[in-house]
Design a protein that fits this description.
Length: about 575
């Protein structure tokens, strides 16, 4: 694609506006700050510069321009990112940018299987499955929206169909569409599973004939499908979640589908009660306001406590939607309707309140030891609350509930908070750049100043100094080439320019993660002198080694003269 179009897209986008559509940013001084979505961040460490149109994280070192952010956040290729951002910038692309993915052949197989399953459901052989879905109150529109299909009660019909289209059995086995020489899914209602970008990566098949089999069969872990890295309905709910500024996390996909049918479309499912770190980070990217809505049984209760704790530690505002009578969200909505479920959402309680209620049910408060343990446990939960007013209200409630003096509780709470503060200071990890020697610092500084000052580019270009580090030498050559071609340069534009040079891009990110003094010609001269001195010292050592190896006295004298001249040059400088 034409670089001018790419530069036009970037120049017409405000990086602050784009990034703030993904995460919350707060202005502090000249820059904006927010929680970094690229590592487990609890304190705002991502800085966004409207002046330079770049972002960088002071903890994990991730940095770049608007393209880099969207690519990393959305898990898109560069070309896919351009297609996404061009309309936002008001730039028309003559044709959609094509993207070659090494997994394209597998995605194609998944799409063919998905179409095949949907056709099966609409065929004569799908009548019984359609009746089952209708009895489950899933209408044709919902079936179409979620691409629900049917695997036939035949051993190898899908495998044969795909192989007739040139697909290899080995590839079909690799993505679990086939199992050795027959279909992986037989006689099940099929629900496609998508990745964050909406590509089909697997399936979940449900029995519907009352067979004595596992109710659900999911695609095994494959090169496409990794359960811990994906969430059901993520791609479909993303825009609705950003609009609502909250996300409802459920256990199973039927709960999500049911909520969708009654107009509650900001729901995703973990596809089980376990919550992985990868899933948590995906959810955090969508919203900082989480509603947990797991099944109302004992397993759902335990999952709510375990996963709520993870969200709390991640600094996420977490509320709990409480379902009674062992009902799951699907059953609850069918039995009581959308309005009743919406009331549950509106009346959701904080995770801390939910946990305190759970603690209370596990202690006998008429027993002194149990009451003491309960009070200490609740105080520990109160100490995690950041809002001082809410903390005081909770403390008063505890005093009233347990008949323990408020002052006693407050004193114990302050003691806990002091210990926690000391612990946080000990645990706080400030990731600093690796200590550099003078030479590395000098070379890195040249790159930084060249990206921020045309004078520095001219000074380096006119000099004859040799840059001993190859990646930095290549970067400097690219900066000079870029400036000579376009007559201007910026950090934001140069990130795009190096997009295909992964190694150089990582070096650039490292260099730009460090703060440098304000540009001056004197600093450039000092850096050039440090590099020149290093080169000279290296050359002298080489000559000294040659003298040791040389047996001809005349040649030795010539080499010593070269060393003397190099040292004289150094003294003059």
């Amino acid at each position: 694609m034409n670089n001018n179009i790419i530069d036009e897209i970037r120049s017409k986008l405000d990086i602050v506006n784009v990034i703030s559509s993904y995460i919350t940013l707060e202005k502090k001084g000249r820059n904006y700050f927010g929680l970094c979505p690229f590592h487990d961040d609890h304190k705002p460490s991502l800085s966004v510069s409207p002046e330079k149109q770049i972002y960088k994280c002071f903890v994990c070192g991730e940095s770049g321009n608007v393209f880099n952010f969207v690519m990393n956040y959305e898990h898109l290729s560069f070309n896919e990112t351009i297609n996404l951002l061009a309309p936002m910038a008001g730039v028309s692309l003559n044709m959609e940018v094509k993207h070659d993915d090494k997994y394209d052949k597998y995605y194609n197989m998944m799409n063919l299987a998905n179409d095949f399953y949907q056709n099966n459901l609409n065929s004569r052989e799908g009548a019984k499955a359609r009746k089952y879905l209708l009895e489950r109150k899933l209408d044709q529109e919902t079936i179409k929206t979620f691409n629900i299909g049917l695997s036939l009660n035949k051993r190898d019909v899908l495998t044969n169909m795909l192989m007739s289209k040139g697909m290899s059995l080995e590839d079909l086995n690799d993505i679990d569409l086939s199992n050795t020489n027959h279909d992986a899914f037989i006689n099940r209602i099929m629900f496609p599973l998508h990745n964050a970008n909406g590509k089909v990566i697997g399936f979940s098949g449900r029995i519907y004939n009352g067979e004595d089999l596992n109710k659900y069969q999911n695609t095994k872990e494959t090169i496409l499908f990794k359960k811990r890295e994906n969430l059901f309905n993520y791609h479909r709910a993303r825009d609705e979640i950003r609009k609502c500024k909250s996300v409802i996390v459920m256990e199973g996909f039927m709960a999500v589908i049911r909520a969708y049918t009654v107009g509650i479309k900001n729901c995703i499912a973990t596809m089980g009660t376990a919550l992985s770190v990868e899933q948590l980070n995906l959810i955090k990217k969508l919203s900082n306001n989480i509603y947990l809505c797991y099944d109302g049984d004992n397993a759902g209760h335990k999952a709510t406590l375990a996963n709520g704790e993870q969200f709390l530690k991640a600094g996420v505002n977490t509320k709990i939607i409480i379902l009674n009578n062992n009902l799951d969200p699907d059953d609850y909505i069918i039995k009581y309707g959308a309005e009743a479920f919406q009331k549950l959402i509106d009346n959701a309680i904080s995770y801390t309140d939910f946990k305190i209620k759970a603690l209370k049910s596990s202690y006998n408060l008429s027993n002194v030891n149990d009451k003491t343990n309960y009070v200490n446990q609740v105080l520990l939960e109160i100490s995690k609350e950041k809002d001082e007013i809410k903390r005081e209200i909770m403390l008063k409630n505890l005093a009233s509930e347990t008949d323990v003096w408020y002052n006693t509780l407050e004193k114990k709470l302050f003691s806990m908070l002091e210990k926690e503060e000391k612990h946080d200071k000990l645990d706080e990890v400030v990731v600093k750049p690796k200590k550099q020697n003078g030479l590395n610092r000098a070379m890195d500084s040249l790159v930084y100043y060249m990206l921020n000052s045309p004078e520095a580019i001219t000074f380096v270009d006119d000099s004859s100094v040799y840059i001993p580090d190859k990646p930095i030498r290549l970067i400097i050559n690219e900066i000079i080439a870029y400036y000579n071609k376009y007559g201007k340069i910026s950090e934001a534009d140069f990130y795009t320019y190096l997009m295909d040079e992964k190694e150089l891009l990582e070096v650039l990110k490292r260099i730009l993660s460090v703060n440098y003094p304000e540009y001056s010609k004197e600093i450039i001269e000092e850096n050039m002198k440090a590099i020149d001195n290093y080169n000279r010292t290296l050359e002298i050592k080489k000559l000294e080694n040659l003298i040791k190896e040389e047996t001809d006295i005349t040649e030795q004298i010539k080499l010593m003269d070269k060393i003397r001249n190099l040292k004289l040059k150094e003294e003059k400088e």
